[in-house]
Amino acid sequence: MKSKSAALQIGQVAKKSKASIHTIRYYEKMGLLKKPGRTAGGFRLYPPETVDQLVFIRKAQDLGLTLREVKQITGCGDKGLGPCCDLTVNIFTRKVGELEGKIAELEAMKSRLKSILTPWVAPHKLQPIKERLK
């Protein structure tokens, strides 16, 4: 930790990162965040970079990464850039494959729904529906 003046209490970290206090404590328990120092009164004191870590975690989740995968990537950072880059490439490659599979499933479902819908709708009414389903 830098200096006590640079340290942030959990409420400040929560406000700056837009993460809840509960989430911050949970990430701490999971090992996504390092255990913070404490004041004499027992209040948590986080280094300022904790805010950046929380923002990174949220962005990674927005990309579809699980907390386990985020932990793998952040933990790998201590081993150097090479192994971390390889791990990240592998995780993202797997995610792309998962998304492609989901897209294929959704396209198949869309086709099935269209084929079920077609007999129920007069041909002249089907055209606007087809346009909305594209």
Question: What does this protein look like?
Answer:
- It is a single chain.
- The protein is an all-alpha fold and 134 residues long.
- It has helices spanning 10-17, 21-30, 49-62, 67-76, 81-117, 123-133; strands spanning 37-38, 44-45.
- The protein folds into two domains: 1-62, Multidrug-efflux Transporter Regulator, Chain: A, Domain 2 (Orthogonal Bundle); 64-134, no CATH class.
- A two-stranded antiparallel ribbon has the order 1-2.
- The model has no long low-confidence stretch (mean pLDDT 86).
Instruction: Tell me the β content.
Output: under 5%
Q: How far from one another are the termini?
A: 53 Å
How is the largest sheet built, in terms of strand order?
1-2
Specify the biggest β-sheet.
2 strands, antiparallel
Shape: elongated
Count of separate DSSP helical elements: 6
Average pLDDT reading: 86
Characteristics of this structure?
mainly alpha; two-stranded antiparallel ribbon; 134 residues; 2 domains
Describe how the helices and strands are arranged.
Blueprint: H1 10-17, H2 21-30, E1 37-38, E2 44-45, H3 49-62, H4 67-76, H5 81-117, H6 123-133
Antiparallel strand pairs: 1-2
Quick summary of this structure?
The protein has 134 residues and is an all-alpha fold.
